[in-house]
Specification:
The complex is a heterodimer of chains A (about 325) and B (about 290). Chain A has about 325 residues and is mostly helical. In chain A, about 75% of the residues lie in helices and about 0% in strands. Chain B starts with a helix and ends in an 8-residue tail after the last helix. In chain B, helix 2 packs across helix 4 and helix 4 runs parallel beside helix 7.
């Protein structure tokens, strides 16, 4: 187990180094940082001075080393647009994105797995067939379209839910602001969370169902039935537990998708989160912010992946990593 | 072999969902291929597009114009024609990525599965990493950073991560097939690696790839629409379903629903058709699940 963990950590470090290298290339060679910092109309002398101050006249490997050590200390430079530290801009947006993503995941997981179990327990019921057909529709509608249709129906036509923004938030501690503690905040959360959760929901539902379908035919389930256990006990205690392991694993390994789709969702609902910030920064070529975003997302995704892998090993007695 | 083929067709014609999926796929592909012949207008011929025709509702609505069956957009382009031309872009991107990423992924998966060792370790770790970062996220970042828009660069951006699906599936399939008796037999007869890989392994390991192809085509078409919706996809001079929906979003309060509903429905129907086909293929080719007849 320990060897496995070490190996995974070393792999993670290699990937992060690769990511940091790509980030450095983006930062240094995509667009001219000198012009971005000095401004379009700076004279040649002013540009040279900027180049010197920021060490942009030194050889690339020196620059890369400094980029790396600075990044490790959390110093990703100053945003070209707002002239504020890039890391601060990112951190400020974390609560909005985290709350949206968490709400979407909770919604997708409870409804998706719940429906998956229901459908596999009564595969012939017409309701099950309807749910399965619906799930096929769910994976066939792109996230951005779900969002727009929801806005059209609930905000424009019916006028019962707000179409964009985060609404009223309540401050918790120094920097966390939450949507969960005010009615207005909750109302603003419904449509975006539903939009973001929809795709994951359909995927989880289909995964649970196919897992259940295989597990329900195994010998130990037949034994459980033969022992006269109640259906609820067979389905939830014996079958679902084994199905959940791969379901959770797949959900965890697709974390990148969650981040990508929250980017789309945040754009549609003008949700003031990380994804929205990234898209604006991409349009404005604000390289320091882009690079910070990529670095943090990389660390985050790799951490989640390692945790999921370890959990998988812990939960599944059939797997022993040497 | 012919018996297997008959069985395949027999199963196909007994499954209404599969027939529906195939029908959607055929109709939409034909429409895209024949766009210049069947589209009532050429939405990108500036001579025929008039601003005076802008934002007309569908023909059956009040103020509708029979010349524009599904109405017009804010530039005065015929919605129906733009959708048909937009399908062309979707399909160009879809099939190009499928072929490029598919070929690359299948070759890598074949080699990794057969030879194993360091090649296998490196490609599969790369695949894990690329997969973790998500095709969608990588494509958005790539296109957002390069700022060059064009159909070619969109295809490239999607390929960066998409080959992984094929490589993984192919590798897993090769690992299973590799142990079959006929492969051992072929090896015993002294067949060289090239012959073995190409003649024996490739065709027998390929079936799962067909399922991936159908699922993947659906995913690529959704992704292209998403990228164009976000403004990092195909250039504005190209028709695209995603871009139509993005420009329709500006009129969401004005009640011009046809700007979003028609391209949106086309996109969903197309992807749904592909997913129906993929679902059927998956069950048909999966020996572990007995189909209920």
């Amino acid at each position: 187990m320990l060897t496995y963990l070490t190996r995974r950590l070393i792999q993670g470090v290699i990937v992060l180094l690769a990511v940091s290298f790509v980030c450095f290339i983006i930062f240094r060679y995509m667009g001219d940082p000198v012009i971005s910092m000095a401004g379009q109309y700076a004279t040649a002398a002013e540009r040279d001075e900027i180049r010197k101050i920021f060490g942009l006249d030194q050889p690339p490997y020196v620059q890369y080393w400094r980029f790396l050590t600075n990044a490790l200390r959390g110093n990703f430079g100053i945003s070209y647009e707002t002239r504020l530290p890039a890391l601060g801009l990112i951190v400020e947006r974390i609560p909005a994105s985290a709350e949206l993503a968490a709400s979407a995941m909770v919604f997708a997981f409870t409804v998706g797995v719940g429906l998956g179990v229901l459908v596999s327990a009564n595969p012939r019921a017409w309701l099950s067939r309807a749910v399965m057909a619906g799930s096929l529709g769910g994976i066939s509608i792109p996230t951005f379209l779900i969002g727009i249709v929801l806005i059209m129906v609930f905000a424009v036509q019916l006028g019962i839910l707000p179409p964009f923004g985060r609404g009223e938030t309540v401050k918790l501690g120094n920097w966390w602001s939450t949507n969960f503690l005010s009615l207005d905040g909750l109302e603003h959360l419904i449509l975006p969370a539903f939009t973001l959760g929809m795709y994951q929901l359909a995927v989880l539902l289909r995964l649970t169902r196919s897992g259940m379908r295989e597990v329900l035919t195994t010998e130990y389930i037949k034994t459980a039935w033969a022992k006269g256990l109640s259906p609820a006990r067979v389905v939830f205690k014996h079958a679902l537990r084994n199905v959940l392991i791969p379901v959770v694993t797949v959900a965890g390994l697709q974390f990148g998708d969650l981040i990508a789709f929250s980017l789309v969702t945040e754009t549609i609902f003008q949700w003031p989160g990380l994804g929205n910030l990234l898209l604006t920064s991409l349009y404005e070529s604000d390289q320091p912010v882009i690079v910070t975003y990529i670095s943090l997302v990389a660390v985050f995704i790799l951490t989640i992946n390692i945790i999921v892998d370890l959990l998988y090993a812990l939960l599944n007695p059939k797997i022993r990593y040497g | 072999m012919s018996q297997r083929k008959n069985r395949f067709l027999y199963d196909f014609f007994r499954d209404p969902a599969a027939i529906l999926g195939a029908a959607i796929m055929i109709v939409f592909t034909a429409a895209a291929l024949l766009a210049p012949l069947i589209a009532p207008h050429d939405p990108y011929d500036l001579k025929t597009v008039e601003l005076g025709d802008s934002l007309k509702p569908p023909a059956w609505e009040e103020d509708g114009d029979p010349e524009f069956l599904l109405g017009t957009d804010d530039q005065g382009r015929d919605i129906l024609s733009t959708i048909i031309y937009g399908l062309r872009t979707s399909l160009t991107v879809g099939f190009s990525v499928m072929l490029l990423a598919g070929t690359f992924g299948v070759i890598i998966g074949l080699l990794a599965g057969y030879y194993g060792g360091i090649l296998d370790a490196v490609t599969m770790r790369t695949a894990d990493t690329v997969f973790a970062f998500s095709t969608t996220l990588l494509a958005i970042l790539f296109l957002g950073l390069f700022k060059q828009s064009g159909v070619g660069i969109v295809i490239l951006a999607i390929c960066i991560a998409d080959w992984v699906r094929y490589a993984r599936t192919m590798r897993a399939s090769v690992l299973e097939v590799r142990e079959e008796a006929y492969i051992t037999a072929a090896k015993a007869t002294g067949a060289n690696d090239f012959h073995l890989l190409l003649i024996h392994l490739l065709p027998n390991a390929l079936p799962p790839i067909f399922v991936i192809m159908a699922v993947d085509l659906a995913a690529i078409i959704m992704l292209e629409a998403t990228l164009s919706f976000l403004g990092v996809g195909v250039p504005i001079t190209k028709p695209s379903l995603g871009m139509m929906i993005a420009s329709g979003k500006n009129y969401i309060y004005a009640g011009n629903w046809w700007l979003i509903v028609f391209p949106g429905a086309t996109l969903v129907l197309f992807v749904l058709g592909l997913n129906l086909l993929a679902d059927w293929l998956r069950e048909e080719l999966n020996p572990r699940i007995q189909r209920s007849r």
